[in-house]
Amino acid sequence: MKSFALLFLVVICGLGGLGHKLKPKKRSDGEVINFRTKTKDVCTMSMSGDEEMKLRIECKSQAMTYWCEFTGKPSVCRAFRNNPKIYWNQIAMELRKLPHACESTQVLKITMCQKAPSAAFMKQIAAGMEPGDAANQVKSVQKTSTSGRGAGKSPIKKILKPPILPLIKPTRHSQGSENETEAMKLAREHCWESLHGFCSYIIGIFRG
Questions:
Q1: Which whole-number Å values give the CA distances from 102 to 116, 175, 187, 198, in the listed order?
Q2: Within 13 Å and on the Cβ side, how many CA atoms surround 70?
Q3: DSSP secondary structure code for residue 110 in this structure
Q4: Rounded distance, CA 82 to CA 162, Å?
Q5: pLDDT tens digits, residue range 110-148?
């Protein structure tokens, strides 16, 4: 009788331990895993849900920002129930090998749940993308350069100054020229032709 009671106690403890192993270890909602893709895209992976899990991946590269969402029941996989943390880390490791975290990933399959039912696999249900900051900066630079070239083509008006004309003083017969003319007349009247110049000079001196 004592041996039967002891055997019954061992069986009960064994079943209790088996039930403890099968109890799923849930990952808290809102917890994230950060990783980088093969092309150095910076990504964040977040999980939520209970029996049916939702996985969202958001990535940012130099050219764009993109995201995708997956849904599935990984709790169907016994390995997931034993250690969900290893399951999600293996998914992140597989995504690191890709140049784009949301392309060619319609179904996420990992080694630890290969033999699990298809419901355990995370399947992509939505995806999207939008231009990144770098693309906007390139567009703004192109607009700036275009406007700069347009401004360079604007005509430059030159102000032409009127030419400065020299002042022309009215010509006046000076007193000296009148004296010289009268001296030459007197020299022609009273001196020999060969001495006209000398006489004119002398007469001019005396007439002042």
A1: 23, 110, 123, 120
A2: 26
A3: -
A4: 98
A5: 889 988 999 999 999 999 998 865 445 544 445 555 555
In angstroms, the CA 49 to CA 125 distance is 15
The answer to whether 77 touches 90, Cβ cutoff 8 Å, is no
Q: Say if residues 82 and 21 touch (Cβ distance below 8 Å).
A: yes
> What six digits make up the tokens of 168?
């022309």
CB contact at 8 A, 183 and 204: yes
Query: What single DSSP character describes residue 162?
Result: P
Residue 7 main-chain phi, psi, to 5 deg: -65, -40
pTM of the model: 0.52
pLDDT of 47 reads 94
Q: Are residues 24 and 81 in contact, defined by beta-carbon separation less than 8 angstroms?
A: yes
DSSP per-residue letters across 102-147: TSS-SEE--GGGTTS-GGGSEEEEEEEEEE-HHHHHHHHHHHHHHH
Q: Contact 183/203 with Cβ under 8 angstroms? A: yes
Q: Where are any strands of DSSP class E within 6-134?
A: 32-36, 42-49, 53-60, 64-72, 107-108, 122-131
Alpha carbons 17 and 13: distance in angstroms, whole number: 6
Task: Give the Cα separation of 27 and 35 in Å (integer).
Answer: 18
DSSP letter for each residue of 179-199: HHHHHHHHHHHHS-GGGHHHH
pLDDT at 143: 53
